[in-house]
Amino acid sequence: MGRSASGPARVPCSDRGSRVSRPARIVPDYRALGSPKPNGGGRFNVRARRADLRGAGRIALFVIAGFAPIWVVSAHHVPDVNQELNSFLRNFGTPLLSAALLWVAYVALEPYVRRFWPNGILGWSRLMSGHVRDSRVGRDVLTGCVFGAVLTLMEMLYQFLPPLLGRGSPIPHFQSEVTTLTGIAVVVGKVFDNLVSGVFVAMFAVLGFVLLRLIFRRTSLAMAAWFVILALFQAGQVLTSGTSMWIAAAYQASLIAALTIMVGRYGLLVTAAGFAVANLLDDIPLTLSLSHWTATTSNIPLATVFALTCFGFYAARAGQPLFGKIDMANG
Questions:
Q1: CA angle 114, 205, 96 (to 5 degrees)
Q2: Is the dihedral of CA 10, 15, 17, 22 positive or negative?
Q3: At CA 34, angle to CA 29 and CA 40, rounded to 5?
Protein backbone atom coordinates (compact mmCIF):
# COMPACT_ATOMS: atom_id res chain seq x y z
CA MET A 1 0.00 0.00 0.00
CA GLY A 2 1.17 3.49 -0.73
CA ARG A 3 0.00 4.95 2.62
CA SER A 4 -0.47 3.19 5.95
CA ALA A 5 -3.22 4.10 8.37
CA SER A 6 -0.78 4.79 11.20
CA GLY A 7 2.14 6.54 9.57
CA PRO A 8 3.37 8.63 6.67
CA ALA A 9 3.37 7.48 3.08
CA ARG A 10 6.06 4.93 2.12
CA VAL A 11 8.21 5.31 -0.98
CA PRO A 12 7.74 2.44 -3.46
CA CYS A 13 10.77 0.21 -4.06
CA SER A 14 11.03 1.25 -7.67
CA ASP A 15 11.35 4.96 -6.68
CA ARG A 16 13.86 4.65 -3.81
CA GLY A 17 16.76 5.45 -6.07
CA SER A 18 15.28 8.76 -7.14
CA ARG A 19 15.33 12.03 -5.18
CA VAL A 20 12.79 12.20 -2.40
CA SER A 21 10.96 15.50 -2.46
CA ARG A 22 9.97 17.46 0.64
CA PRO A 23 6.33 17.59 1.71
CA ALA A 24 4.43 20.16 -0.34
CA ARG A 25 3.43 23.38 1.41
CA ILE A 26 0.16 25.15 0.77
CA VAL A 27 0.97 28.76 -0.14
CA PRO A 28 -2.06 31.07 -0.24
CA ASP A 29 -2.48 33.25 -3.30
CA TYR A 30 -2.64 36.71 -1.72
CA ARG A 31 -3.21 38.35 -5.09
CA ALA A 32 -6.35 36.31 -5.60
CA LEU A 33 -7.51 37.24 -2.11
CA GLY A 34 -7.02 40.91 -2.90
CA SER A 35 -4.66 41.57 0.04
CA PRO A 36 -0.89 42.04 0.25
CA LYS A 37 1.39 39.27 1.37
CA PRO A 38 2.34 39.56 5.05
CA ASN A 39 5.78 41.05 5.02
CA GLY A 40 6.74 42.39 8.43
CA GLY A 41 5.47 45.93 7.88
CA GLY A 42 7.77 48.87 7.45
CA ARG A 43 11.02 46.88 7.73
CA PHE A 44 10.19 44.84 4.65
CA ASN A 45 9.08 47.94 2.79
CA VAL A 46 12.48 49.50 3.45
CA ARG A 47 14.41 46.37 2.45
CA ALA A 48 12.29 45.93 -0.68
CA ARG A 49 12.70 49.63 -1.55
CA ARG A 50 8.98 50.14 -1.65
CA ALA A 51 8.79 52.80 1.03
CA ASP A 52 8.95 56.52 0.36
CA LEU A 53 11.95 57.20 2.60
CA ARG A 54 12.30 60.75 1.33
CA GLY A 55 8.73 61.61 2.29
CA ALA A 56 9.07 59.90 5.67
CA GLY A 57 12.30 61.77 6.32
CA ARG A 58 10.69 65.08 5.44
CA ILE A 59 7.86 64.45 7.91
CA ALA A 60 10.33 63.63 10.69
CA LEU A 61 12.46 66.65 9.80
CA PHE A 62 9.37 68.88 9.83
CA VAL A 63 8.56 67.78 13.39
CA ILE A 64 12.12 68.13 14.69
CA ALA A 65 12.85 71.41 12.92
CA GLY A 66 9.55 72.84 14.11
CA PHE A 67 9.98 71.99 17.77
CA ALA A 68 13.59 73.21 17.95
CA PRO A 69 12.87 76.96 17.56
CA ILE A 70 9.84 76.60 19.82
CA TRP A 71 12.10 75.25 22.56
CA VAL A 72 14.53 78.12 21.96
CA VAL A 73 11.77 80.71 22.31
CA SER A 74 9.59 79.23 25.05
CA ALA A 75 12.06 77.48 27.38
CA HIS A 76 13.63 79.18 30.38
CA HIS A 77 17.35 79.54 29.60
CA VAL A 78 20.18 79.98 32.10
CA PRO A 79 23.93 80.54 31.60
CA ASP A 80 24.76 76.93 32.47
CA VAL A 81 25.65 74.36 29.82
CA ASN A 82 24.61 71.34 31.91
CA GLN A 83 21.19 72.79 32.74
CA GLU A 84 20.65 73.83 29.12
CA LEU A 85 21.54 70.33 27.94
CA ASN A 86 19.20 68.76 30.50
CA SER A 87 16.42 71.13 29.44
CA PHE A 88 16.99 70.28 25.80
CA LEU A 89 16.90 66.53 26.40
CA ARG A 90 13.89 66.78 28.72
CA ASN A 91 11.84 68.88 26.29
CA PHE A 92 12.97 67.20 23.09
CA GLY A 93 12.14 63.62 24.09
CA THR A 94 8.49 63.84 23.06
CA PRO A 95 9.19 65.54 19.68
CA LEU A 96 11.80 62.91 18.84
CA LEU A 97 9.35 60.13 19.75
CA SER A 98 6.62 61.78 17.65
CA ALA A 99 9.00 62.13 14.69
CA ALA A 100 10.03 58.48 14.99
CA LEU A 101 6.43 57.25 15.20
CA LEU A 102 5.41 59.33 12.20
CA TRP A 103 8.40 58.02 10.24
CA VAL A 104 7.54 54.39 11.03
CA ALA A 105 3.82 54.88 10.38
CA TYR A 106 4.45 56.54 7.02
CA VAL A 107 6.96 53.90 5.92
CA ALA A 108 4.50 51.13 6.83
CA LEU A 109 1.41 52.90 5.45
CA GLU A 110 2.43 54.60 2.24
CA PRO A 111 3.17 51.52 0.04
CA TYR A 112 -0.20 49.92 0.85
CA VAL A 113 -2.16 53.11 0.30
CA ARG A 114 -0.28 53.76 -2.94
CA ARG A 115 -1.18 50.27 -4.17
CA PHE A 116 -4.78 49.84 -3.00
CA TRP A 117 -5.97 53.46 -2.69
CA PRO A 118 -3.69 55.68 -4.78
CA ASN A 119 -6.16 58.55 -5.00
CA GLY A 120 -6.30 58.82 -1.23
CA ILE A 121 -2.61 59.67 -0.95
CA LEU A 122 -2.03 61.47 -4.25
CA GLY A 123 -2.05 65.01 -2.85
CA TRP A 124 0.15 64.02 0.08
CA SER A 125 2.65 62.23 -2.18
CA ARG A 126 2.98 65.30 -4.39
CA LEU A 127 3.52 67.48 -1.32
CA MET A 128 6.21 65.11 0.01
CA SER A 129 7.85 65.08 -3.43
CA GLY A 130 8.37 68.84 -3.22
CA HIS A 131 5.53 69.89 -5.54
CA VAL A 132 4.17 72.35 -3.00
CA ARG A 133 2.27 74.49 -5.51
CA ASP A 134 0.66 71.52 -7.26
CA SER A 135 -3.03 72.05 -7.92
CA ARG A 136 -3.96 68.77 -6.22
CA VAL A 137 -2.06 69.83 -3.09
CA GLY A 138 -3.86 73.17 -3.06
CA ARG A 139 -7.25 71.58 -3.58
CA ASP A 140 -6.72 69.11 -0.74
CA VAL A 141 -5.47 71.79 1.66
CA LEU A 142 -8.38 74.06 0.79
CA THR A 143 -10.87 71.21 1.21
CA GLY A 144 -9.30 70.34 4.56
CA CYS A 145 -9.68 73.95 5.72
CA VAL A 146 -13.37 73.80 4.81
CA PHE A 147 -13.82 70.57 6.77
CA GLY A 148 -11.99 72.09 9.74
CA ALA A 149 -14.30 75.11 9.70
CA VAL A 150 -17.37 72.84 9.45
CA LEU A 151 -16.21 70.74 12.41
CA THR A 152 -15.65 73.92 14.45
CA LEU A 153 -19.11 75.24 13.54
CA MET A 154 -20.64 71.95 14.65
CA GLU A 155 -18.80 72.19 17.97
CA MET A 156 -20.03 75.76 18.47
CA LEU A 157 -23.65 74.74 17.81
CA TYR A 158 -23.28 71.83 20.19
CA GLN A 159 -22.03 74.13 22.96
CA PHE A 160 -24.42 77.07 22.54
CA LEU A 161 -27.62 75.60 21.08
CA PRO A 162 -28.86 73.38 23.99
CA PRO A 163 -29.37 76.33 26.42
CA LEU A 164 -31.43 78.08 23.76
CA LEU A 165 -33.66 74.99 23.61
CA GLY A 166 -34.07 74.90 27.38
CA ARG A 167 -31.64 72.02 27.85
CA GLY A 168 -28.56 71.74 29.99
CA SER A 169 -25.22 72.77 28.54
CA PRO A 170 -22.71 70.04 27.67
CA ILE A 171 -19.38 69.81 29.44
CA PRO A 172 -17.40 72.79 28.09
CA HIS A 173 -14.42 71.79 25.97
CA PHE A 174 -14.63 74.44 23.27
CA GLN A 175 -11.60 76.79 23.27
CA SER A 176 -10.58 75.66 26.74
CA GLU A 177 -6.78 75.94 26.35
CA VAL A 178 -6.51 79.07 28.48
CA THR A 179 -2.80 78.47 29.09
CA THR A 180 -2.13 79.82 25.60
CA LEU A 181 -3.12 83.27 26.86
CA THR A 182 0.06 83.52 28.95
CA GLY A 183 2.31 84.52 26.06
CA ILE A 184 3.13 84.40 22.37
CA ALA A 185 5.69 81.62 22.76
CA VAL A 186 3.10 79.35 24.37
CA VAL A 187 0.51 79.94 21.67
CA VAL A 188 3.08 79.43 18.89
CA GLY A 189 4.04 76.12 20.46
CA LYS A 190 0.39 75.14 20.70
CA VAL A 191 -0.21 76.05 17.06
CA PHE A 192 2.65 73.86 15.88
CA ASP A 193 1.58 71.07 18.23
CA ASN A 194 -1.90 71.15 16.69
CA LEU A 195 -0.42 70.95 13.18
CA VAL A 196 1.67 67.91 14.11
CA SER A 197 -1.29 66.37 15.94
CA GLY A 198 -3.42 66.75 12.82
CA VAL A 199 -0.86 64.85 10.75
CA PHE A 200 -0.45 62.22 13.45
CA VAL A 201 -4.17 61.50 13.85
CA ALA A 202 -4.76 61.60 10.09
CA MET A 203 -1.97 59.08 9.50
CA PHE A 204 -3.46 56.47 11.80
CA ALA A 205 -7.03 57.23 10.72
CA VAL A 206 -6.16 56.58 7.09
CA LEU A 207 -4.21 53.46 8.10
CA GLY A 208 -7.31 52.10 9.84
CA PHE A 209 -9.50 52.90 6.85
CA VAL A 210 -7.08 51.18 4.45
CA LEU A 211 -7.17 48.06 6.63
CA LEU A 212 -10.97 48.11 6.44
CA ARG A 213 -10.78 48.44 2.66
CA LEU A 214 -8.52 45.39 2.53
CA ILE A 215 -10.93 43.42 4.70
CA PHE A 216 -14.22 44.37 2.99
CA ARG A 217 -12.78 45.03 -0.53
CA ARG A 218 -15.43 47.68 -1.18
CA THR A 219 -15.24 51.33 -0.28
CA SER A 220 -18.92 51.54 0.69
CA LEU A 221 -18.63 48.62 3.11
CA ALA A 222 -15.40 50.02 4.54
CA MET A 223 -17.03 53.40 5.15
CA ALA A 224 -20.00 51.73 6.84
CA ALA A 225 -17.69 49.71 9.07
CA TRP A 226 -15.68 52.86 9.83
CA PHE A 227 -18.88 54.66 10.85
CA VAL A 228 -19.91 51.80 13.17
CA ILE A 229 -16.46 51.60 14.81
CA LEU A 230 -16.37 55.36 15.45
CA ALA A 231 -19.92 55.20 16.82
CA LEU A 232 -18.86 52.55 19.33
CA PHE A 233 -15.87 54.63 20.40
CA GLN A 234 -17.95 57.80 20.76
CA ALA A 235 -20.83 56.16 22.63
CA GLY A 236 -19.24 57.11 25.94
CA GLN A 237 -19.28 60.77 24.91
CA VAL A 238 -23.05 60.59 24.49
CA LEU A 239 -23.59 59.07 27.93
CA THR A 240 -21.35 61.58 29.73
CA SER A 241 -22.08 64.72 27.72
CA GLY A 242 -24.02 66.59 30.41
CA THR A 243 -26.85 67.56 28.06
CA SER A 244 -29.84 65.75 26.59
CA MET A 245 -28.93 62.40 25.16
CA TRP A 246 -30.68 63.01 21.83
CA ILE A 247 -28.72 66.25 21.32
CA ALA A 248 -25.43 64.54 22.12
CA ALA A 249 -26.32 61.59 19.87
CA ALA A 250 -27.22 63.89 16.97
CA TYR A 251 -23.97 65.81 17.39
CA GLN A 252 -21.85 62.65 17.52
CA ALA A 253 -23.63 61.19 14.48
CA SER A 254 -23.00 64.40 12.50
CA LEU A 255 -19.37 64.45 13.65
CA ILE A 256 -18.78 60.81 12.69
CA ALA A 257 -20.45 61.34 9.30
CA ALA A 258 -18.18 64.32 8.58
CA LEU A 259 -15.07 62.38 9.65
CA THR A 260 -16.10 59.37 7.56
CA ILE A 261 -16.54 61.50 4.45
CA MET A 262 -13.28 63.35 5.09
CA VAL A 263 -11.22 60.17 5.51
CA GLY A 264 -12.98 57.83 3.10
CA ARG A 265 -13.69 60.27 0.29
CA TYR A 266 -10.76 62.68 0.25
CA GLY A 267 -7.77 60.92 1.79
CA LEU A 268 -4.70 61.75 3.85
CA LEU A 269 -3.86 65.37 3.07
CA VAL A 270 -7.45 66.59 3.43
CA THR A 271 -7.77 64.70 6.73
CA ALA A 272 -4.51 66.15 8.07
CA ALA A 273 -5.46 69.71 7.12
CA GLY A 274 -8.98 69.27 8.47
CA PHE A 275 -7.83 67.97 11.85
CA ALA A 276 -5.16 70.67 12.13
CA VAL A 277 -7.56 73.53 11.39
CA ALA A 278 -10.26 72.09 13.66
CA ASN A 279 -7.75 71.75 16.51
CA LEU A 280 -6.58 75.33 16.05
CA LEU A 281 -10.10 76.75 16.10
CA ASP A 282 -11.44 74.46 18.84
CA ASP A 283 -8.63 74.59 21.41
CA ILE A 284 -7.30 78.16 21.55
CA PRO A 285 -9.57 80.96 22.84
CA LEU A 286 -10.31 83.34 19.97
CA THR A 287 -11.68 86.86 19.72
CA LEU A 288 -12.41 89.20 16.85
CA SER A 289 -11.95 92.31 18.99
CA LEU A 290 -8.53 93.82 18.28
CA SER A 291 -8.70 95.91 21.47
CA HIS A 292 -9.19 92.88 23.74
CA TRP A 293 -6.22 91.81 25.85
CA THR A 294 -6.31 88.32 24.26
CA ALA A 295 -6.20 89.69 20.72
CA THR A 296 -2.47 89.01 20.26
CA THR A 297 -2.66 85.33 21.12
CA SER A 298 -5.94 85.03 19.21
CA ASN A 299 -4.56 86.50 16.00
CA ILE A 300 -1.81 83.88 15.64
CA PRO A 301 -4.07 80.82 15.13
CA LEU A 302 -6.48 82.89 13.03
CA ALA A 303 -3.58 84.05 10.85
CA THR A 304 -2.38 80.45 10.52
CA VAL A 305 -5.79 79.24 9.34
CA PHE A 306 -6.11 82.21 6.99
CA ALA A 307 -2.64 81.54 5.54
CA LEU A 308 -3.44 77.85 4.96
CA THR A 309 -6.70 78.78 3.25
CA CYS A 310 -5.05 81.38 1.01
CA PHE A 311 -2.28 78.95 0.10
CA GLY A 312 -4.78 76.25 -0.78
CA PHE A 313 -6.78 78.64 -2.96
CA TYR A 314 -3.64 79.96 -4.68
CA ALA A 315 -2.18 76.52 -5.38
CA ALA A 316 -5.52 75.10 -6.53
CA ARG A 317 -5.69 77.74 -9.27
CA ALA A 318 -2.62 76.10 -10.91
CA GLY A 319 -1.16 79.35 -12.18
CA GLN A 320 -4.46 80.72 -13.47
CA PRO A 321 -5.72 84.16 -12.38
CA LEU A 322 -6.99 83.93 -8.83
CA PHE A 323 -10.47 85.20 -9.66
CA GLY A 324 -10.71 83.93 -13.23
CA LYS A 325 -10.61 85.85 -16.50
CA ILE A 326 -12.94 88.62 -17.50
CA ASP A 327 -14.12 88.31 -21.08
CA MET A 328 -14.33 91.94 -22.19
CA ALA A 329 -15.56 91.00 -25.68
CA ASN A 330 -18.78 89.49 -24.33
CA GLY A 331 -19.08 91.88 -21.40
A1: 90
A2: negative
A3: 75
